């Protein structure tokens, strides 16, 4: 696709979602939701809520053309990598027989279809991430619970070199995770609207490939070194992947859902799907960004499960403590009242952390 065709497809998809939300939710609230497109050559998206939170919402989601272009190009390279099957022998050793990436990607949809759907899924997830910030009024939350002075939220902090620490960083990290959580849930619902049965299973894999491509772009090709406490404006990309993957596992494996989606999806099979998607995206990113695409893989470069990663329990405890502090306010002011879309740490998960 040409650059113009990529922009047009992204505009068509996101405008359709925005118009549906305007007609079904924002009109009832007497508010507005608009998309602003930026020609600034930065891989960025942003969310802005204007006015008082007690008034009707007037929300803007900013999308940079450079962001959708890079997402498409990354995904096109990923699809070509899997199609060529250059790491076939590695994948045979690494992954389960029924979850080989070449077959998962190419056996159900045509190349044109799976490339297009992966791109649509990825940009839809980015859009819903920004909408999650707005639904939960994270700009207001950050201003109320920390010393941040603006209610505008950018995915790339391009205007400052200052490292965010302590309470400000914790608030920023947990609201990013909450936006990821809502985005993943909302994007899965969009898949269920459009696909059923084996088509849905294939689409889940394609979606998680797209999300993984997006997040590995921000992770880079270095080893993952986790800080015990939040630092900077955003969690590490692998932390984000490890937290949102269980949403897919748990929600789509609910027996009550299987009659609706016309397929039984086990938790184990969904774990394998997400693991294959994230691992292959990570390996490609390493090959693209390391010298000659070879060499020793960095430590802690792939998903391990949040409880298996050194230092993760300490970090997650800070996240949960921060979420428990701000959750009552978010529940009071949020625009989206669907409880399943709200970040949740179960009693069982909390008990594991406390041991």
Question: Would you mind describing this structure in some detail?
Answer:
- By secondary structure, the chain is an alpha+beta fold.
- It has one domain.
- The chain has helices at residues 3-26, 65-84, 88-94, 101-106, 111-135, 138-145, 166-194, 197-219, 237-252, 255-261, 267-289, 312-333, 347-354; strands at residues 32-38, 45-50, 58-64, 153-154.
- Strands 1-3-2-4 form a four-stranded mixed sheet.
- Mean pLDDT is 88; it is low at 157-161.
* Overall geometry: globular
Whole-number tally of structural domains: 1
The overall pLDDT average reads: 88
The quaternary organization reads as single chain
Q: Helical segment tally?
A: 13
Strand content: 5-15%
Distance between the termini: 52 Å
Rounded to the nearest angstrom, the radius of gyration is 20 Å
- The portion of residues assigned to helices is 55-70%
What structural category characterises the helix and strand content?
alpha+beta
Strand order of the largest sheet: 1-3-2-4
- Poorly predicted regions are 157-161
Can you lay out the helices and strands and say which pair or pack?
Layout lengths: L2 H24 L5 E7 L6 E6 L7 E7 H20 L3 H7 L6 H6 L4 H25 L2 H8 L7 E2 L11 H29 L2 H23 L17 H16 L2 H7 L5 H23 L22 H22 L13 H8 L1
Parallel strand pairs: 1-3
Antiparallel strand pairs: 2-3, 2-4
Helix pairs in contact: 1-2, 1-5, 2-5, 2-8, 5-7, 5-8, 6-7, 7-9, 7-12, 8-9, 8-11, 9-11
